[in-house]
Specification:
Layout: H1 7-31, H2 36-48, E1 51-52, H3 53-60, H4 64-76, E2 80-84, E3 92-96, H5 98-119, H6 124-142
Antiparallel strand pairs: 1-3, 2-3
Length: 150
């Protein structure tokens, strides 16, 4: 495309790209026998360490009802444990069990390799530029929009 895309064209391409990538991520995770919600929780705990449900929820953007069901499911499978926090005995921190760590490390390695292969369609410069541009756009879009009352 030689002309600069309009905001509408940009949105459509971005939305379609996001949907296609999300479908590939879900396929990758489900082929490993896990649902996406469980994967995202385990992956957050793998890379960030023990977290509260609220902290995980903020990282993976999941509704609280879905989070509770997923945490219950993962705990029942022996992949995570809830531990009381010393600072606030009412709060609970989630932590990977040794079994949960082994499972998510294996699945994450496979998923990461598949995703790297998928993103490999872009050269290193394109990856850096796309990453920087999307981050800039996302941060700008996160600022509340205020209409001029005039």
């Amino acid at each position: 495309m030689k002309e600069t895309p309009t905001a509408g064209q940009f949105w459509i391409v971005l939305a379609r790209c996001s949907k296609a990538l999300a479908m590939r991520v879900e396929q990758s995770v489900s082929s490993a026998g896990m649902c996406l919600t469980d994967f995202m929780i385990l992956e957050a705990l793998l890379h960030k360490g023990p977290l509260t449900i609220t902290e995980i929820q903020g990282k993976i953007l999941l509704a609280s009802g879905s989070m509770t069901a997923a945490v219950d499911r993962l705990e029942k499978k022996g992949m995570i444990v809830r531990r009381a926090m010393q600072q606030d005995r009412r709060a609970r921190q989630l932590e990977l069990t040794p079994s949960g760590r082994r499972v998510i490390e294996r699945i994450f390695r496979e998923h990461e390799a598949e995703f790297e292969s998928l993103i490999g369609v872009l050269g290193d410069g394109e990856k850096r530029q796309t990453y920087a541009s999307l981050k800039k756009l996302g941060l700008h879009a996160a600022v509340p929009f205020v209409r001029d009352p005039a």
